[in-house]
Amino acid sequence: MKNLSSSQIRQMWLDFFKSKGHNVEKSASLVPQNDPTLLWTNAGVTPLKKYFDGTMVPLNPRITNAQKCIRTNDIENVGRTARHHTFFEMLGNFSIGDYFKKEVIPWACELLFSDEWFGFSKDKLYITYYYHDLETRDLWIENGIDPNHLIPLESNFWEIGEGPCGPDTEMFYDRGEKYDKRGKELIEKDIENDRFIEIWNIVFSQYNSKIGVPRDEYKELPSKNIDTGCGLERLCCVMQGVDTNYDTDLFMPIIKKVEEISKVKYDGQMAFKVIADHVRTVTFAVADGATLSNEGRGYVLRRVLRRAMKYAKTLGIDKPFMSDLVDVVIEIMNDYYPYLAEKVDIVKQIINNEEVKFLQTLTVGEKRLAEMLEGKEILSGDDAFLLYDTYGFPLELTMEYAEDHGVKVDVEGFKAAMERQKERARNSRKDIQSMGGQNEAFLNFKEESKFVGYETLECEAKVIAVFDNAIVLDETPFYATSGGQVCDKGIINGINVIDVIKMPNGQTLHALEENPFKVNDKVKAIVDANYREHVMKNHSGAHLLQKALQDVLGDHVHQQGQQVNDKFVRFDFNNYNALTDAEIIQIEDEVNRFIKEDHKVDIRIMPIEEARKLGAMALFGEKYGDMVRVVNMEVSKEFCGGTHVSHTGLLEDFEIISYESIGSGIFRITGSTSSDANEILVEALANSISEGYQLEKKAAKLASDAKAKGIEVTNNVKFVKPTSKGYRFVLDLREALANTQAELHSLEKEINDALKSNTMADLNKYEALIENNKLVMEIKDVDKNLLKEIAKTLANNFNLDLVFLAYNNETNITFVCYAKGNYNAVETIKVATKITGGGGGGKPDLAQAGGKDVSKLAEALEKVKEYLK
What we know:
- By secondary structure, the chain is an alpha+beta fold.
- Strands 1, 2, 3, 4, 5, 6, 7, 8 and 9 form a 9-stranded mixed β-sheet that branches.
């Protein structure tokens, strides 16, 4: 077996399958495109689903890839075992209705055992197969596998609900008795072990499963597929002869850097493994466009990063450091993922910002812990869990801190509290989502709760009710989600408030990360002022936007829905026609005029009839009481219970990020206010900006490649990022991209025309190959798209009866035949494709076809010559 680097192993896999006629598919983004069912690309086949489900037809039914993946479903095992990871690379080869068992099993043997490739010893491999799939068993035996190394298993059948399914076969590498004295029964009984390492799984997708139909009665698929997966990290572990995946060249440079930062020697500690794994995940995910947040994939990513930082504490690292590891990750992976180097600065900045933020949380947690330990012999499990859940304190760190003070920690109590919290969270989510009259306890609670958040952002209060992990206060500064405005963020006695809603009887309910409170407890409630400020600005911006829409489009325009948060306002409205670009800019300018005029915002509660006489606008279809709250911005007057600025000048700026139609006569504008509005706009359009620079890079490469072929061109392709703001930036960016694309197209045409001219002017060199007034040959170094024109020109220039050309691009062959008189181009082409496989067609005078087996090209050309004699 060869000892290869990870880069060599990856490349050898791709090269091998390329030699078998596969197209090499580029590794797709970790953020799935056009697949809302997935948070992450989590398998090699994920980006190829469009081919397997028939949505798209691949150019080549044979595909190979090395796909980066993220899975976090068993994150707690990362660092504990030798082979669990959140980020990994899956090597794969796939057939969409092309080859099947008789091809893939011999190829697997060639790749694994041939000295030209990986060079494994056959006696080191044990292979499982589905116990009824005797064809697969026999094929392994035909290819030299000892029958005693073949293990039939009932579980070797891939099936997920109804649809394509089939048996699979798995390859295990035996690392010997050093890792376990037991033998192949470890595989037979599916016992976790370190001796037999699964390195490759091949799925034969050949049946169509149906609920209620026995497996042995499944119908065969009309088009059979191959789907395989081979973990690069595991393959490296085996081929580099190390104990764990973490000892390979994919991880050790990171671990060495952590040693340098921590001044701690690595000896298998879990913390090193967690950090090494997690920094790979975060680096790739951020580079692929993921962000850290409290929702969806952003929440998953934040959890991964913070978990690494928790373990860093056990190594004595108490400062931001993960960003320092990014360079190491990129150095390891740069051969195959060169785009990482282009994004290094932004990746490091995002990671560093998150580290700084979390370390501040840990510092507050340390102070809370010191208070808890005072005068105690045992720290309760509930207190330990509060530190973990609210401040991100790992249990191990709490135990070390407690030990320094001679205090023990109730570990079992901590575990019990963890489980209770999970159950409470599940129940709380159900309560929050269904509380509109569904929860009897909520309905029966009538005690008054006063909202004071219009006047103040913090207050002393008393707990008047407790509902699992949620509480009600006699008065609160927290704004509850209402009217399209998100709820406030903040803390109650240092504990994070995760949601705020209105109860059926109007009280404010605060959902907490942890609830240690009892009725009559005195607490201090504090709203996050910065968050509230940004939400207020965007909500006031929504009112000004509504007024601007009516001014520009007419009084028929009314709000049809909105969402206001700290980043943007998303405003839905009705209109007869789609808006023009000029109208959108006019609307944006109008809002900014209102801001610059710095109108005073007067907010009053008044009788509804008085409000209507004032001209205040009510939300269509909304029911109001006798008294209403009116937000008067002089230019705009609306019924509204939300929070707002005191004068419009505080909004600073308003920029429209996007405009779209969301239904018949309903449109949506998304915009942002404040001094960072332009930053939010640019961030939202980051992919389009990146596309512009990529077009510029593509042009530079085209010009460079052309020069290498002796073609001099002037490259005028340059993407210039607009300097305008707001929706003008959106339009200018659109125009800049269009101009760059047009310039690129012009450059491509100039290069192609020059290549065509050079090619057509140099055809005399083939005259010596003419035999019996016919020309049959392999042609190289030309544009494949010119083959038909080349064939016609050769026939006309030399007055030939027939020209037959074969173009080999190393993965497949293109045949073109031009014929005159009694010769038939279609029949001549068939002679070649019968040898190489493939097919095509055309007319008697001009035909084209594709060939699959490039190794038989010479034979095919000889057969054509014989046929023409």
